[in-house]
Amino acid sequence: MLVTHLLKLNFIGFFFCVCFFSCQKKDNSPPDVTINSPLNYSSYQLPTSITITGEISDNRALNELEISIIDDDLIPITSTIYLDVTGKSYSFNETIQVNNSLISSGVFYIRVKAIDVEENFSTSYVTINLSEIPRELSGIYTVTSSLVNTQLNKLDSSGIFELKKEITGKHQVSIANSMYQYLFVGTDNLGEAIETSFFTQLWEIPIIPSTYSFFQDVFLNDDGTQLNISNGDGLIRHYNKNGLQVGGIVAPFQEWFAHFIRTEDELFGDYYMVDTYANIFTRWLVLFSGNSGLEYNRTAIDGEIIKIGKVNGSLYYVLTQQANKFSLINYDITSHQLWVEIEVMNTFCYDAFKKNDYLYITTNNGLYRFNYSNYQMLHLIDNFPCYNIAYEDISGDLLISDAQQLHFFNEQLGMYKSYASSDSIENILIYYNK
Question: According to the CATH classification, is domain 32-131 in 3.40.50.2000?
Fold first, then answer.
């Protein structure tokens, strides 16, 4: 009887507990969030620090606080601040650094989110205006090379080339990526991305044994997000900002890639236009799909391709060298028609840059300018060897090398200043802060 009585008491106690706790209502009330500063529609010039103050409170207990700055797509543009909080109220005073050079001017939002112990949450927003970091020239670099080493040099304010880094191996390719803030140099020993504060290596691309020089050509996507490298083993490899390979295309059997360009156009599609060769005598201009990597069209071409570039729309230019003659060839990617526009005898071409309607071509006999508005060629600099060419778009100057000198040129002043290099200049890199 005693056992039965105790069981009854236990059952009654259990039933009472269940009823008592089930009668407790679940907390569905979200916390309160108040942002005191900054005020709505405050404006900031980047880079800047934004101090965010305010209070959060809850009827029972707070658990977490999140503070971020987001864009129209609700994506944070800086690191989000996460804070563990306790109690029923909490006052916050946090500062967020906004110094990303890739942020464009526009409207953004400070978001403060409070979460309580029951996982109820509430969010408050303040609208702010951000003005982007102005684009500025960060440096002019030359790449020089010997048989065993490659040098990265920066032109200082006194007109002296200062050695910033020496890289093992003979130079093959180089390019500046201002968007992701690195310089890439490929030699016959390795390829490496170099940051420009202390000139240390960010990441590297090892050499793979190949039939021809491993680094054939290098090209950045239009938006600068992807580094594309043509390699002597018959591949074009794509690398992201961290140096991870993210795809590529493969040459047909017993063929190899040299110079190339990628066109990403909503109207004309995504293609690679590639100088593809079977030997030094047999080569084609081949279009590959940028998505699938499959061959789309090929056209036989005479001579060695020196440079490929876009003119406008579906029209591209191809510079070739055949014996002592260089040719300017035009190619239409929609009709696949290819025609010779200009031929210059007893002249060797080395590089080219297109600015608006003008195509500037460097040769051993000087600088030529082809005008695509009237299809006329003009010899701007005569009897003066010009090799590499680059364009500094803030000043509007062309930078031209002649072996061991770097010249600044514009069409109003001509060559108006020159700087001597101690070694032969292999390439000119123009580098900006964004």
Answer: no
